[in-house]
């Protein structure tokens, strides 16, 4: 839900203030980092970046008369302001991206379910499943490895026209929940990279019926709470916790993310868990940028996102008038799987010009435009509060030129994604697979073996094999078809010999 009334004074930025003040106080730094606020820089680095970022790159020390110069206390105040702005019970600043947030959520639900899962404290078995779609980000598989949890996949569908995964239906979630063995949590990506989302409220209801927490990878939705024209936040729809890559959409530094919790039992566990997952030397620049980015959203978010929404809508209309291009619009909401979308993302089909997404991406780069992502038949462009009419105008102009240059009889027939075929036979938990002995084996000779690591065609970025999954003739056929069509596959033990890591037989 869109929130506007806040409990705390959202104009405050305690972390940013403390950091700025420390640099102004002229203190002689007999402490880390070794560059000593920029005094020891390589000449070219100094020229390229200047000294300012280094002057603010301190750790542990911060000036705060209110908190007796205690940086931990300043951080707690900044995080409390963020919890108020984002509608959370608690918010944690992350310096290792949403990747750390996802891993922390999974470790937390495993920890909470632990006493239920282990018959004996010394059991070696990994039991407990997380119900999730296969299209989850790879950081989720890392989290499953760390937490010793097993995936129970929810059947998703594929949109043939746009070449993107569609959210799973509620009945697919229901079916997966019924099949699950000792489920500990539900996990959904909300929204997808393309800014579309299923009915998360219903998934939350289902999770509540099963008395299990709903965890949300909200990497692409840190802006959702700040304008009514954007989808509702995951927390407002009933998520127990969500992780947002603030750095992907807000005015903050790369790697700076947020982890929100809405339940006390999760909130209480997080400091200990994050202490395991993240560096003990967080970048205070990242934290200061999160503090300021939160203030900007709480104070001016509505106005700034109004502008981004208007710009993206105007661009969408203009792009849709360019012959040969098609930009995803509201009509996508008529699909039963889709409940909401983020209109600031421009998903543009280029195949009617006879181009693949990556061909269009390369061409646009020569025109000084870099897109976010190139798919088989589309490109994805992000419009945020950092864009103005001139940038968006340049984009539309370049797209017009792209269409003109490639007008005429279509020469090239873009690659189509083969129909995904996966085994789905999870024989070991990802952690068991990861910790077993492995050897490399040619994929085409690996029927019946158990994959030790993921093998993923890009696009679509959905793993064909995950750690612990049995390799079948269908999964091999699918992967072979992908590489024959020139689709890149990541995760080989050796790309030349097309070998994959498999688990040694006992
Ligand atoms: C859907 C999704 N989840 C999680 C992540 C990981 O986020 P981060 O880069 O902040 O660690 C990404 C990154 O691309 C993502 O697209």
Task: Summarize this structure briefly.
With 506 residues, the chain is an alpha+beta fold. The chain has 15 helices and 19 strands. The protein starts with 13 loop residues before the first helix and ends with a strand.
Number of helices: 15
CATH superfamily of the largest domain: Type I PLP-dependent aspartate aminotransferase-like (Major domain)
**On the 0-100 scale, what is the average pLDDT?**
94
Total separate domains: 3
Q: How many angstroms separate the termini? A: 52 Å
CATH architecture of the largest domain: 3-Layer(aba) Sandwich
Fraction in beta strands: 5-15%
Give the overall shape, derived from the CA principal axes: globular
Q: What's the main sheet like?
A: 7 strands, mixed
The CATH top-level class label of the largest domain: Alpha Beta
* CATH topology (fold) name of the largest domain: Aspartate Aminotransferase, domain 2
Q: What ligands can be seen in this structure?
A: pyridoxal-5'-phosphate
Helix coverage percent: 25-40%
Please explain how this structure is put together.
With about 500 residues, this protein is α+β, with helices and mostly antiparallel strands. The chain folds into 3 domains: about 45-295, Type I PLP-dependent aspartate aminotransferase-like (Major domain) (Aspartate Aminotransferase, domain 2); about 300-405, Aspartate Aminotransferase, domain 1 (Alpha-Beta Complex); about 430-505, Ornithine Decarboxylase, Chain A, domain 4 (Alpha-Beta Complex), CATH 3.90.100. Helix content is about 35%, strand content about 15%. A 7-stranded mixed sheet has the order 1-10-9-8-6-2-3, with helices on both faces. It has a 4-stranded antiparallel sheet with strand order 11-13-15-14. α6 links the parallel β2 and β3 (about 150-155). α1 crosses α11 (about 285-320), α4 packs parallel to α11 (about 285-320) and α11 (about 285-320) packs across α13 (about 390-405). The model has no long low-confidence stretch (mean pLDDT about 95). The protein binds pyridoxal-5'-phosphate (PLP). Pyridoxal-5'-phosphate binds near residues 217 and 257.
């Amino acid at each position: 839900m869109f929130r506007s009334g806040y409990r705390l004074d959202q104009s405050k930025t305690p972390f940013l203030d403390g950091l700025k003040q420390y640099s102004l106080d002229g203190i002689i730094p007999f402490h880390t980092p070794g560059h000593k606020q920029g005094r020891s820089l390589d000449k070219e680095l100094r020229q390229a970046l200047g000294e300012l970022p280094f002057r603010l790159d301190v750790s542990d020390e911060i000036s705060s008369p209110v908190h007796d110069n205690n940086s931990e206390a300043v951080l707690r105040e900044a995080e409390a302001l963020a919890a108020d702005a984002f509608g959370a019970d608690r918010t944690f600043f992350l310096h290792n991206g949403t990747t750390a947030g996802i891993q922390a959520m999974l470790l937390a639900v495993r920890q909470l379910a632990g006493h239920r899962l282990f018959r004996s404290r010394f059991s070696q078995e990994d039991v407990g499943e997380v119900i999730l779609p296969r299209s989850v980000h790879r950081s989720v598989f890392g989290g499953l490895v760390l937490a010793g949890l097993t995936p129970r996949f929810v059947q998703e569908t594929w949109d043939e026209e746009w070449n993107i995964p569609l959210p799973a239906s509620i009945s697919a979630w229901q079916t997966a929940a019924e099949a699950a063995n000792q489920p500990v949590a539900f996990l959904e990506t909300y929204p997808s990279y393309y800014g579309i989302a299923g009915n998360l409220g219903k998934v939350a209801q289902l999770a509540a019926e099963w008395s299990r927490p709903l965890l949300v990878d909200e990497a692409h939705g840190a802006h959702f709470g700040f304008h009514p024209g954007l989808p509702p936040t995951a927390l407002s729809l009933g998520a127990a916790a969500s992780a947002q890559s603030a750095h992907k959409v807000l005015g903050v530094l790369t790697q700076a993310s947020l982890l929100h919790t809405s339940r006390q039992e999760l909130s209480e566990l997080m400091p200990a868990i994050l202490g395991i997952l993240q560096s003990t030397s967080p970048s205070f620049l990242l934290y200061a940028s999160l503090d300021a980015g939160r203030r900007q959203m709480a104070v001016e978010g509505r106005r700034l996102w109004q502008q981004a929404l208007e710009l993206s809508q105007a661009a969408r209309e203009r792009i849709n008038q360019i012959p040969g291009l098609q930009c995803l619009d509201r009509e996508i909401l008529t699909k039963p799987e889709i409940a909401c979308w983020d209109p600031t993302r421009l998903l543009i089909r280029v195949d009617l010009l006879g181009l693949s997404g990556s061909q269009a991406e390369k061409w646009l780069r020569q025109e000084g435009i870099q897109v976010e992502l190139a798919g088989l038949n589309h490109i994805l462009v992000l419009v945020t509060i950092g864009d103005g009419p001139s940038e968006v105008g340049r984009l539309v102009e370049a797209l017009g030129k792209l269409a003109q240059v490639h007008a005429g009889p279509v020469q090239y027939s873009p690659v189509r994604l083969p129909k995904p075929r996966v085994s789905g036979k999870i024989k070991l938990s990802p952690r068991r697979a990861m910790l077993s002995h492995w050897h490399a084996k040619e994929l085409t000779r690996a029927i019946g073996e158990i994959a030790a690591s993921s093998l993923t065609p890009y696009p679509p970025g959905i793993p064909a094999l995950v750690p612990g999954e049995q390799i079948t003739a269908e999964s091999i056929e699918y992967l072979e078809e992908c590489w024959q069509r020139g689709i890149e596959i990541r995760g080989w033990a050796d790309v030349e010999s097309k070998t994959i890591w498999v688990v040694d037989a006992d």
